[in-house]
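Hi,

Apologies if this is the wrong queue. I'm a grad student, and the batch job for Phosphoenolpyruvate carboxylase from Sphingobium fuliginis produced an output file that my downstream script rejects. I'm not sure whether the problem is my script or the file. Here is the sequence I used:
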Amino acid sequence: MATLASSPAPAITQNPDIRFLGRLLGDVIRAYGGEKIYKQTEYIRSASVDRARGLHGADVVDTGLDALSLDDTLSFVRGFMLFSMLANLAEDRQGVAAEPGADVASAVEKLRSHGIEREAVLDLLSHALIVPVLTAHPTEVRRKSMIDHKNRIADLMLLKDGGRTETDEGENLDEAIFRQIALLWQTRPLRREKLFVADEIENVLAYFRDVFLPVLPALYARWERVLGARPQSFLRVGNWIGGDRDGNPFVQAPQLRLALARGCEAALGFYMDALHALGAELSLSTELADVSQAVLDLADASGDVSPSRQDEPYRRAISGIYARLAATYRSLVGKAPSRPSALKGEPYASPADLRRDLVTVAQGLASEGNGALATGGALGRLIRAVETFGFHLATLDMRQNSDVHQSVVAELLKVAGVEADYAGLDEYARIALLRRELANNRPLGTAFFEYSEQTASELAIVHSAAEAHRIYGPQCITHYIISKAESVSDLLEVNIILKEAGLWRAGTEGAPPQAAIMAVPLFETIADLEAAPKIMAAYFGLPEIGGVVRERGHQEVMIGYSDSNKDGGYITSTWGLFQASKALAPVFAEAGTAMQLFHGRGGAVGRGGGSSFAAIQAQPKGTVQGRIRITEQGEVIAAKFGTRDVAMTNLEAMTSATLLASLEPEVLSDRDAARFAAAMDQLSKTAFAAYRDLVYGTEGFKEFFRQLTPIQEISGLKIGSRPASRTKSTRIEDLRAIPWVFSWAQARVMLPGWYGVGHALSAFEDKALLADMAQHWSFLQSALANLEMVLAKSDLGIAAHYLPLVEDQARGAEIFDRIRDGWDMAHDGLLAATAQSRLLEKNPKLDTSIRLRLPYIEPLNLLQVELMKRHRSGEDDPRIKEGIELSINAIATALRNSG
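Support response: The file is valid. Your script probably expects a header line. Output copied below for reference.
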C-alpha cells in the first residue's frame, strides 16, 4: 500500500544552545579523540544530514561507516551519543517539552473563565493527592556519572544565561563547559557490573535529595501566591525501589529497610542543613524586636546559654530544635549527623512535633511588622518540606504477584490446620474462608515451623513494614500493589498476609477493621481491565471491606499500560484503560468512597508514554477527582526530573492537568460522547484483531522478533536488578513489556506504539466522524498525538537493514511486508483524520526536535546491525559486544522515550 504524498517539511532551525554545545563537542573530539576520528565523525554526520535533507545524490554517497575500525566505531558511537545527550539538554533549557498552559496559574485562570473560582480549586486541593512514583524499571541505559556531568553543564549554562562570563570560582564559563564535555567524553558510559537493588536505591535517592526536597517547597510557595492561600501538601513523591518484589527475587526485607533508612537519612539531613542556615539568618535581638512568649519559652528550653546569643531568642530556639533533630537523626539513622549539636535534646516523636516548633518560630516572626519575616522564605519552605516529606522522605509502595500471595496463604493455612488445600478451593469458598480469618486477630504463622523460603521472605517483608510504621510513621508505606489481580480473593489474601504483622486488625463492636496499608489491585491485561468494575463492586460489597474503605475515604486501583498494550495493541489498550476508568467511577460512588487511580505509565508510547499533561486531561470526566498517582521510570526520571528547572516544569504540568481534569466542565454533549464511544469500540475491535493476528497468530513471529531486534543483546545490559523475562520461556506472553517495547524501538520499528491502528482507521467508513472525533475529543487527540510521535520516530527503511538477521528470510520478508503495510495505513489514516499533509505539521517544535536527531540515529542503527551480525556469527572480540551496547545506549538517548 502506498502512502499519501506528503508536503515538504520546512528547514530545521537549530536552537543556539545546540549549535554552541555541538561546536564544543567537536572541539573536544578533536582534542581528545584525535584529528582522524574527528574528521571521520564529521564526514559521517554531514553525509547523513544530506541524506535526511534529501539532497540530490546523497543517497549514493559513501556513508563513511565502512572505514571505521572497531576502535573508531566505539569512539564514533560515543560522539553521536554525547551529541544527543547535549541536544536533549539544550531542548529542555529552551522549553521544547513545555506545553502551553501547563502551569497552575494558567489552569486557575482557565477554570475562572468557566466560572470556577479559586475557592473551588482550594476545596479540591484540601483533599487532593498527586504523586509521581519513581520505579526502578530498567530502561535507563546511561550511568549516573554521565547524567551528573550533563547536569553540571546545565548549571553552567544557567550562569551563561545571566550574562556571566565566569563561574563563582573565577573560571571562564566557556572553558568550564568545555571541561565538563571533555569529562563526558572520557567517562565510561556503560556499566560493567550488574546493578543491585542497593545501587538502584542510591541512584534514585539522588533525585529525592538534590531535586524533590528543594523543588516541592519552592513550588508550593509559588502556588500560594497564585491561589492567595496556603493549600495542604497535596503533591508528594512515591517510590517503588526497595518495595517492588514482583519478578525481582533480589528485593527482600533488608532492601526494604535500606530504602526507608536511606530516605530518612536524606530527609533529616536536609532539615538539619536548612536549620543551620536559619540559625545564621534569624539574628533578631530582644533589644530591637518584640518577641512572643512562646518563642522565649522555646529559647529557654533549648539549653543554649551562650552569652553571645542571650539577646537572640530565635537563634537559641533554632539551636534547641536543631539539637532535638540531631537526636532524632541518631535515633532513626543509627549514627551521628555530619554536623552534631553541642546541646542535648530529646528526639522528636513525629514530624508533627518538629513542625509545631517550627510554626512557633514562624508565628513569633509574624507577630511583628507586616509579617514579612514569617511568610515564605527559608522557614516557610522548611515547614512545607517537613509537612511533605516527614521523616520518611517518600512513601514506599510494596508490590508482589498474586500467585505468590496465593502460595503464601495456602502454606499458612495448611500449617495452621485451617485448610489443607486452599489452592483447590473455588473462588466463593476462598472468599468465605479468608473473611473468617480476617474477622479475628489470631495470626496464622508460628515460630515453631520452618516455612518455605518464599513464605518466610514474604512474612519478613510485612514484619519489616510494620516495624517501619513504628519507626518512621504510617506514611512511610501506605499501598500494597497486587500484580495480576484477577479476583476478590487476590485482594483478601494480601490483607491476610498483612494481618500476620498487625497491619490489618479485625473490627470490634460498632467499629470497622483497621487496615494500616491499603491493598491495591493492578489490572493489566485487556481482560483484567474489563473485569475490574465487577471485582471492585464485589470487594466493596463485603461489609468489613466497605467499612475500611469508607473510614479511609478513598480506595486506589492501579491500571497497567504496558501489559495491556503487549496483550492487545496500542489503541485497544488506550481505549480499554479509558473504559475501565469510566466504568469504575459509579462503582466507587455506590461504595461511598473516592476513587484514586494509579496509572502505571512507562516512557514509550507503547507503555503509556507521551504528554502527561494531555493524558491526564484526557481521562474520563469524574475519574480524577483531584487524586492521581503515576509511575515514572527509567530514562523518564532523568528526562523529567534531572534538574530542578525541568522538574518544576513537569510537576507544574502534572498538577495543572489534574486541576483541569477534575474541575473543567465536560465539553462533549451526551450525544457526541455516545457516538464517539461507539466508533471507538469499532476501531478498537478492528485494531485488536489485526494486532493479535500478527503478534500471536502468525507462525514464526516470535522468532522474527527475537532475531530482528536486539532483544538478546538488551537482555544482557547491566541496567537493572530485575530479570528481562518472568520465566525462562521465550514466549512473548512471558516477556516483560519493557524489553518488548525497548527492542522494537532500537530497530526503529516501534511496533507496540502503532500496529493495528492503521487497520482500524482504514476500515472505518465514516471518515467525517473520525475527523470530528480527532478535532473535538481530548481522548482521541491525546491518543493520536502519541501515535504521531511514534510514527515520526520509527523508520521502516532503516528497520529493513535488520532483516538479514532473520534466519528464515522468506518468512521474515513476509512478516516485514505486513508490518510495513500496517505502518503505511497508520500514517495515511492519521494524516487524514488530523487534516495534515505530513507528520507533525501542527507540532513544529516536536517536528524540529525529531528531525534534528534522525541523521544522528541512522548511522548508529547501521553500525548496530553490522555489529550484531558479527556478534551472532560467533566473533568474540569484546569490542563488538561493547559496540552493540554503546549503540543501544546512543539510540535510546537520541529517541528519548524508547523504553
